[in-house]
Amino acid sequence: MALVCFPFKKERVPTVLRNVDIAVRHNCVDAVLLVGATKNECYRKIYAAIEAKNNSDQPYAKPVHILVQTRLATVLRPGKGDGMNTAMQFFLNAHEQPANHFTEPLKRLHFYDADIESFDHNWITKAEDGAALGYDVVRHYFPRSSTDAQVTWQVTKVGFALLWPRTTLPWVQQPLGGELCFTRRVVEALMAEPRVMQQSDWGIDTMYTFFCAQKGFSLLESYVPQGKMHALYGGLRDLKNMLCECFAAVQSLRHEPVSEEPTVHRIDPATPVPSCITEKIGYDIEKSMRLLREKWTARQKGLLELFPEKAKCGLLRASEWPEFMFMDEQCWVSAYKVLLDHFNVFDEDWRELIFKMWVARVLNYTMRHVTRGYHCALQANTEMVTRLHMRRTMELFEGKPMQPLDRKVSSGHLCTPESPPSPSSSWGIEPLQPLSPVTSYGRSER
Amino acid sequence: MALVCFPFKKERVPTVLRNVDIAVRHNCVDAVLLVGATKNECYRKIYAAIEAKNNSDQPYAKPVHILVQTRLATVLRPGKGDGMNTAMQFFLNAHEQPANHFTEPLKRLHFYDADIESFDHNWITKAEDGAALGYDVVRHYFPRSSTDAQVTWQVTKVGFALLWPRTTLPWVQQPLGGELCFTRRVVEALMAEPRVMQQSDWGIDTMYTFFCAQKGFSLLESYVPQGKMHALYGGLRDLKNMLCECFAAVQSLRHEPVSEEPTVHRIDPATPVPSCITEKIGYDIEKSMRLLREKWTARQKGLLELFPEKAKCGLLRASEWPEFMFMDEQCWVSAYKVLLDHFNVFDEDWRELIFKMWVARVLNYTMRHVTRGYHCALQANTEMVTRLHMRRTMELFEGKPMQPLDRKVSSGHLCTPESPPSPSSSWGIEPLQPLSPVTSYGRSER
Amino acid sequence: MALVCFPFKKERVPTVLRNVDIAVRHNCVDAVLLVGATKNECYRKIYAAIEAKNNSDQPYAKPVHILVQTRLATVLRPGKGDGMNTAMQFFLNAHEQPANHFTEPLKRLHFYDADIESFDHNWITKAEDGAALGYDVVRHYFPRSSTDAQVTWQVTKVGFALLWPRTTLPWVQQPLGGELCFTRRVVEALMAEPRVMQQSDWGIDTMYTFFCAQKGFSLLESYVPQGKMHALYGGLRDLKNMLCECFAAVQSLRHEPVSEEPTVHRIDPATPVPSCITEKIGYDIEKSMRLLREKWTARQKGLLELFPEKAKCGLLRASEWPEFMFMDEQCWVSAYKVLLDHFNVFDEDWRELIFKMWVARVLNYTMRHVTRGYHCALQANTEMVTRLHMRRTMELFEGKPMQPLDRKVSSGHLCTPESPPSPSSSWGIEPLQPLSPVTSYGRSER
Amino acid sequence: MALVCFPFKKERVPTVLRNVDIAVRHNCVDAVLLVGATKNECYRKIYAAIEAKNNSDQPYAKPVHILVQTRLATVLRPGKGDGMNTAMQFFLNAHEQPANHFTEPLKRLHFYDADIESFDHNWITKAEDGAALGYDVVRHYFPRSSTDAQVTWQVTKVGFALLWPRTTLPWVQQPLGGELCFTRRVVEALMAEPRVMQQSDWGIDTMYTFFCAQKGFSLLESYVPQGKMHALYGGLRDLKNMLCECFAAVQSLRHEPVSEEPTVHRIDPATPVPSCITEKIGYDIEKSMRLLREKWTARQKGLLELFPEKAKCGLLRASEWPEFMFMDEQCWVSAYKVLLDHFNVFDEDWRELIFKMWVARVLNYTMRHVTRGYHCALQANTEMVTRLHMRRTMELFEGKPMQPLDRKVSSGHLCTPESPPSPSSSWGIEPLQPLSPVTSYGRSER
């Protein structure tokens, strides 16, 4: 009893219809749901196509529903969050509507972006297989261009590593991925969580990932070797909203505790990355550099005073002639901490400031690592997060007995904080600036 | 308070001394222990070299102990197991010997093979870092030649996937690895386990891996990118003892339950494999083919009657002219199940029979997968284990409610066994022969 | 005024028709010619399809001719050579047949195998571009599976390196390739050569390559990155005819001189090989090993007496239990020299003997090099030929003044034979057995 | 009778001495020559070290000479050219100096940069092997970082392709390489060429390559798989002199004819590039971008009027905020042609202008191609040169009968210029702007 949902907004209609068709024909799928952002032209075209198909002599073999998303949240921008949450509501209650002809509650809810050109029946099969093995959540992950995924790496993964270093969160491969499968009890738990229902914007994926971890659901990350081919963004500017909303979602959770009790989290091994992905370049570098000098206001320059010298001066210089090498890992992390305390997602100056900082960070990463090749770049991302979560773990427990990471917490077998990793650590921990007191955020204060 | 132990038997002495030196100079290490298999020439040379060093004007800066291993077990062949267990005994009690000058109990015990030519201080640092992060066990893993590790893949990983498919065991990267670090409470727990102390042979690594999982210790697998360079075996014949003893260790555990409660198991991401490893070929193919016709006895041919037709006839034909393509994944798994029930490690005919079957299996794998390149070969290994643990999970719970894989076992949210993965599964599950009733082995009987 | 010819025998008809279509639609092509081996079913189907197309309301926009090949040779097996030579005859005379409506002599003749699934307009464009740049001959070359092309490497390239080491012949990438373009004057020169016209079998490609070099035609080798996908042979047995006929072609030329005057030979740089090619395995190893014990006769064993001990004894042992490691580079080269003197393509015992030796050589190469990865295997092939042509060059001029390799032969600047490459040569020259006197074959005797 | 010469200026002394030692111990080498740029500290240290060695009880086994370079040219900056030419003079006359104890004229002259850290005896052996095979010139080539070699690709190779497209010059792998071996008759021919002797600066390598081709010497390019590790330049600024002098050398030759008669040019096949080279990034991008706004003068802006709109406006805009995407292949080639006519190596404004254009070109290449991976970048370089030499060949003969590229020029078999490559050419010829009349430079005017 699986329902496959495709949220959509403005997509290539033939791709959407092709994907609906693949889902309908899969023998594990009982129904398909399309949730549109608004009743726009794309919506009308898809609606008409489905109608036509169902009135033809070869109608869909299974129900294909189409809805406009409900406004479920009250404060944040209505966006993908309202869409996915609308689908969850539909999923939970579908069997109570006689018109739907479902004889029992639906068991599994799949989400896939509607515009995936490389979508095929394997996405559904792998998710169903994982659910059949008993996993509460199956998330797809896949190879990505080395310049893609920079909201994931610089914002979500860095945030998870800083705030919940001893949990499974920093180990989730693609925490912002929108291709996943929830079992019914997961949907129930998420819908019971007001902060999920209120997250109507791009922050929704962060919320799903976070609360699944907090509630201890078991997770399988399943590998899709061909990757996710879909419409590309034009330049980094298109990502500003996503960046701000994803950061704000992490920020809103920063005082949330996550238990360190173990959860099941398994990762299907990856395979070599096809050259069409390693050779793709995700954004226009020259155009993106220009963002560093655009839309400055006096107030933005004032807000910069909250930041460490290096970030502040670097960004000011970059407004005159592009610089980005100042925004190294350490500079970004120190700025990130200030942002956690002060960022305001409703304030355009803050939005513009975090955006410029992130642009500098992405340029730094591109020039320093991407130019050295795909594997170097991916390794740089991975090592940044590993270093952070290690360093952060050490800090959190400095001077205090650290708890072993297992289910039977024993006493008396403390790891001594007095033997930190040697300076020439094999993990390559870069010297970080002295950190601000950990009491301002993070879980140690509780 | 870390102790680094190098078990040894007959090694290149300069390599051993070099490794001792690296350990002594590491600032996390308090003492080094060498455990020799017997008082052979190698032992005497190392002993003399340490004496000489300590009597020189530049003695070791820390204690370097050297012992001959104690006979701790009673039944199995005295081997590496006695050596490592001797080291564990020393570790636990060292602070009680005033001569040792340890002011408090030692906290961490590292093991490294004495003959690793690529050993450096990073191995120790990574293990200490992991322990400092709170992991009970840190295991090193590393890239290996595609023709190496065939006892691991065909014997240990296949066995773990068949017997404990829903646990963390099939996901352990290198379950036979001898480079690891235990915290004191792990050593205590292992020494309290009689079956560990009785495993005096090559089966010891299996025991350590198994009981750490059974007891729920948290595990970090730490990646060593340069790999483990060490003395090579001459041909597959050298591996017969190891094969038999590793299989027997799995077999002896086959009725042991392992809880499906989650444990912490994290895997440091791997990096691209250096070409010196991808281009290495691990054994002499022509010479190994000859093993298929050697040492046959009438009784071996009689024992073959216990096996399915395909394995039986294939092996008989191979005694006349080499064949190995019959020994595909399915044939090997079906033979493996017979071996689990009938193999006798003390019976030379059984030892020779499992050895020939394994040689055929390794040749099959080499000709079918290794010839297609390093990544194909590694992927074939990984997928074999993934398929097995998935198929086995499905079987174990056929017709019964399957438990979700999380810490709070809920009721009423069962995954329906009536929707198995579609035949054209994206996981590529090969059709397996009908399985013998699961009551004969495995954990479902309890 | 280009004619594209597809020789064919028994092919997948839709593939052939698709390729005809591509050729017809190319704006550099004036006509297409299909030459069938016999009037078999494949021929009739293609004939009918072309008729039908031409009688439809969308006929081919250009003439598409279909012929059965003429028997042009008298002694050798009628085969691909008759087919290609038939096409050359057609090409030369086509403008004299009023029915053909060619207003002037055709200028360029392209050949492509009819069964290439990866054929597209680029093959034609690249050849036409090369011809437009002034090259007499354009040959396509492409990446191939590491187990493919073993007639090319072990027979043709080894022969060229041994017999004409100082010419361009050992540097031709794919001397047996059937995808090429000749300008009219090349066709005229080849047709004037009786040995070309008599080479009615698989040896035709060798003849074309050889006489183009001997006559000093300029050559461009053009790279086709996607490779040549086509029907695969089942096992090495299928290649026996090709092997014998390609060897016999080289053998028949062994007393032919080739001038060392420079010719133009340029090689379009290759690009990284796609994984679908690096991961392909070309033949069935287990099945091929069986060839070593099949079809032995007493006379074959007698003929083995002509060969060096190592080859003779190795092959005899291999008839009882497969061996192949004896057939290393040096053993193969020494056997090759005996074959050059004694092989008789009309004698079945000789055919079977060269075949078994070659099977052993291919197995040796597969086990020693292919198992180490695609790049190792290709490099082993390349280095074998480089070593041979170097060593052979040295031998040919031992004790005699060597001529500089340029167009103005100067005197008095001799390279001293007394300073051979040092034993630990960077070219990795393996020690070769003392060679038989060079007077028996090769060009030095003239 | 080989002489190995190391030109040097200011190098790491131990590296130089190590390389001298390797050369002395090679059994093909008779003497070593060090040519210093000036009597600086480096010179004095090396001099002293050699003296000391020769006065020790283990003196060099062969003569090691050290000289300060002679001022041989009169106009151009004294530099590497004077150094190498000094070595050639020494080589030619060495046997006439009784003090040198050479009983006969030296036969081969090797050059190696003195600072190569990856130098070993194989460099010498490969060159000697090639010379023993009869090649007049052996040039070493090797894998290089994708951001290295941008004077070679953008200046020398582009120039060779534009000016002498039908000769061997555009096919020389590393025309600026300083690791090579000349036979005596080559040295004689080069020294007889006044333009070589006058090229005292960085242009010397261009001269050697050009005149060897013009005189028809046979060439082997020998591959050194480990690459050339040596001291790195700090940023692109360091390369300004080299850029200007290499361009001026090409420019000075632009009216020189090169015969299209074939010459022997063979290229030892390359092997996969080690990751230490693919992962190296050759220059500081952020620092290099700053060069675009530095050192502008009013006169430079005036000179820009000579250039096409796109280059002119792009460079002016880049002086205010960095741009480089305008400097694509076509823009660079059109600017190159203006530079060929107008550049003045003695005029600082011209030097600064060509430098800025080249910086923009290198940034364009880096952002567009290097970010997509090593192989993409190398392929982009190769294809740029291939496209140019093809397009240029077509242009040169437009409307005129084109000569076949072989040694027996035949008549009557013309390639028709009226069938140009199709627009969607498989060689990917980018549409080039209409070219300025070819009469202004290049060989067609003669």
TrEMBL record, chains A, B, C, D:
<dbReference type="Pfam" id="PF21969">
    <property type="entry name" value="MGS_GT"/>
</dbReference>
<feature type="domain" description="Mannosylglycerate synthase GT">
    <location>
        <begin position="3"/>
        <end position="252"/>
    </location>
</feature>
<dbReference type="InterPro" id="IPR054143">
    <property type="entry name" value="MGS_C"/>
</dbReference>
<dbReference type="InterPro" id="IPR054145">
    <property type="entry name" value="MGS_GT"/>
</dbReference>
<dbReference type="InterPro" id="IPR029044">
    <property type="entry name" value="Nucleotide-diphossugar_trans"/>
</dbReference>
<feature type="compositionally biased region" description="Polar residues">
    <location>
        <begin position="436"/>
        <end position="446"/>
    </location>
</feature>
<dbReference type="Pfam" id="PF21967">
    <property type="entry name" value="MGS_C"/>
</dbReference>
<protein>
    <submittedName>
        <fullName>Mannosylglycerate synthase</fullName>
    </submittedName>
</protein>
<feature type="region of interest" description="Disordered">
    <location>
        <begin position="403"/>
        <end position="446"/>
    </location>
</feature>
<feature type="domain" description="Mannosylglycerate synthase C-terminal">
    <location>
        <begin position="277"/>
        <end position="385"/>
    </location>
</feature>
